[in-house]
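Inputs:
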Amino acid sequence: MIARGILAGILWLAGTVTSSLAAEHTVVRTHREAVVEMRVAALIMSGQQGGALPIALAILPGVDDPESFTAMVEIDGAALLDSLLADGVAEDGTDEDGTDEDRPITGRESAAIRSVAGPLVVDLFAYVLGDQLDVLDQQSVSLELDAVAHGEVLAATGLKFFVPLALTANAVDGPRQLRVLARVGKTFGLRGTEVKGMSGDPPQAWPPAFAEFDEPWLIAMPQGEVVLPPPFGFGAGAVLPTSRALIVAGEPMLGQAFAAPLPGSRLIALVRSPGDAAVVWPLEIGEREQVRSVTPFDATPFTVENADLDPGLYEIALAWGPDSDELPDATKARASSSYVPVFIASPARTDARDLDRGVEQPELSPETRTKKRRPPNRKLKELLARIATDYLSALRQLVAGERRAALATLSASETGVVEQLNADAVPILAAGQTSALASLTDSEWRAVLPAALLHLDLSQRYRRQHRFILTHHATQRVVELARAAATRLATPEASVEAARTLAGLGSQYQLTGSLSQAKKLFDQALDLADDATALLGLATLQEKRGHFVEAVPALERLVTVQSEFPEGRLRLALNRIRTGRIKPARDDLRRLARQTDSDWVAVVAHQELARLEVERSDSRAAVKLLRRGLQRWPGHPTLAIQLAYVLESQGQGRASLELLTETRFASATAEFAARERSRYNAWSEQLPKANRHQLDLLAETRLADLGRWLAAQPGATPVGTNPAGTTPAGTTPSGGAAGGDGGR
Amino acid sequence: MLVSPAPGEPVFGEVEMIAEVVAETPVRRVTFRVDGIVVGELTEPPYRLNVGVADSGVEHRFEVVAENVNGEVGTSLLVSPRFEIDDEVELELQQLYVTVTGQETRALDLAADDFVVVDNGATQSLVTFERGDVPLTALLLVDASDSMRGERLQAALAGASAFIDGMQDLDQAKLVLFAERVLHDSPFTNFAEVLQTGLEGVEARGSTALNDHLYVALRLLEPRQGRRVIVLLSDGVDVASVLQMREVLTSVRRSQALIYWLRLGATASGHTSAWRDVEGHREEFELLERGVEDSGGRILILRDISQTRAAFTEILNELRDQYVLGYYPTNNQGDDSWHEIKVRVRGRGLDVRARQGYIDFR
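Outputs:
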């Protein structure tokens, strides 16, 4: 490392160091699919924190895979038991027998636990969001546990969930968030935190991850899917992580510094309350030693005496000071590690609620509480009928060539229902809109394509508006209509069309970085037919993640389906090179360099072919190729740079320099902006655009069929022309559209 | 008559002009000109003047004009040839630009005897030694990709301006804003106004081709003798270059330019692209770090773009405080091999930073 003298990292261990993993696995049942409960989604997307079930959250970096991390969620046992009582799941009461040596839990908790009938279900939902609040990954875990059998542990400590999550790190630039909801019965707790850049390297300066006291916990951890990073990993000397520093006032804090001591310098601590100036604290330094862990590492142990610190939140950093008995002035000391928050607890056990003390927590708004909002049956029927009516109105506008009006009508209808019912709106909207199409015969399902495209466009619009529930609904409608059409029509052409529709939706998600969603849609498309857009989307998704081996099969299928697509062949060639299949790649690159259908592909082909020639020590061939490229694209900066490099490596320094001096790198008139390699790195748009164009053309041909079917539907009237004065579902009596789904 | 510089030899850096004046009547003044510009006047002997010649890729005209008390004038003119890259010029003198630091401060009181220079294991004798203002030629390479939009680019340019404003008369610089292509560049000049002209309309856009533009910067600095410096401002993540960093590293070693990297953000770990996986990007990053270290430069990590100005100023101050050590290597074979250089200061436990080595060209 170039930055000498800077501490490479700091790891704090709690006042009590555990010597072994003191916990037990009690996983009874888990759901690892991303179960989407709309009410939960609405709560999570609201961005609020708090709730009656306090939870604490920590992020543990991935091991060997920087795209993965583990969310560790702690549910405090005492708080959990309180919630059971509050919800009526457990009954309050005292232990008739008083203190019992065989049952150390006494009193209220004991009675509460023993009163729980059946397994206790604890649900956890974790969402990873991008900066546009796109869902990058989501997981749900459910735990059923025998409260009576494990009540002792539950009362003493609580539950720790370890949930593996994926960050599509650089596919989306900007900050990422982790938001978690834990639910027991009707009680839930919400917490969120920022996910900073993760590193698979040995620990540098993590967000705080502390070792647990030597106490048992109930742990939910999918076996084999979660690997705890050092030094917490299971094995000899492993310790269980905890989400907050459990450093007890009056007891020494133990820490380990990764950097070796500098001669003439002394390690000191800088301690401050957040917002205040730091004070220098002395440290007792131990002998450098190897820490036992799954991956052993060297560290210098030290001790901070904190007898004088009151319980509360502090920040501590390490610094180098001169090696003398006198402590340096804190204003002159410079922290050599980042400040690490440390919570110094009172001698009594702390829990997640302590984290919130003194911090203003927003009240969850009434709209986001999980309260059933389904209207009574009669009103429900009316609502469903209105939804269906609005849907048909929108379709009529579409057939009449009023696409914008159709989108507005459908959006107003959907928005109004969501405003009224929040997360409960989704199944009702789906039911109402599906019922509107109930009379379609099998062959008439051809006419549904224009409707599917309406939902496709609304999906994009809602996503831009960050309206999660509406986005989810619109997406589901596209998927349902596409798949239903493929099933009902039961022809290869119908499957191809459905695949094309799903691929189009997947491309939308891909362009905005929701890669897990995009992948699902591409997979669904490919279940129906070999769609080029889906194959390209899948391949580029793998490639962008650096999974080149996985990209090859999709690209091989793509060039079979679409043999005249230069970009597909280029990507296949480059990924073959990366996976060692040079000869077929070289042949493809030669052809691509000569073709004239796609200039940007030809430029990249020239460059990569030249590289191959250099690598097989044929620099002359590389020079010839690059000169040909510069004849075809005079002044191309990247070709000039590459040629200059090859010339220089051949000993032609003067020619190389002359070339660079002559090339007008900043020329505003350069035909090429040298963006070919950026374009390769970007999400491909050519096929998705062509795909959408094809769908639009097809939809145009189906409008007449749709019109004929609509004309045969009884009783439907366009919006605003109902003589009875009734208004569409969800709109205000004055006719204006209602607001959004509150997603933020 | 001009007796120095010597005729027929290309010149660069600091040059001593020596005029011998033979006159029967007292000399009123001797005027020294370089390339037509008056650089000094002396009224009494010795008629010696040190001048700086930064741009060595061209011929230079050295002229002295002696005027006696009667107003009679005598002149002497010498034209030095341009320096040709591929000419066989014996350039055995290795010059090292060395930064010496103690407890976070630079050591400025060292003498030549304090230094030990070891070239491929053989201790070398210093033939030149100086500290202080040695003219430099700097190329300021500023990342202007999408991630630098808005205030970030403005802060970066303010930092570059601080460097430019701190330049001295014989220094030269070139400012290049790059993304996947060059968005703006200036000529080499020491006029701040020229360097800062035309920036108003430049907007950060596109992705980053750091490797390619670092390579071009190294090559464009090659013909310029004396102290050559690249100051790179970027987060270091390259997704658009045709060259790989290991290819650029060869040029780093060949060019002998000092590279200072103002690094935005601490690490590039976890990054992938369609061109490289995680391991590939990490390797690129580490090779760039190595290149900076090999050059004798330094990485300054900027936690926030607002630190740019202070960072540029710090670099300039460090350059002013550098020692320049020259030696003729005793163990060159002309075999294109890499010679490792180690420099230390006797006895004082000081940190020394200098170029890590050079290529012993045929």
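Remarks. Chain A has a mean pLDDT of 75. Residues 256 and 301 of chain A are 4 Å apart (CA to CA).
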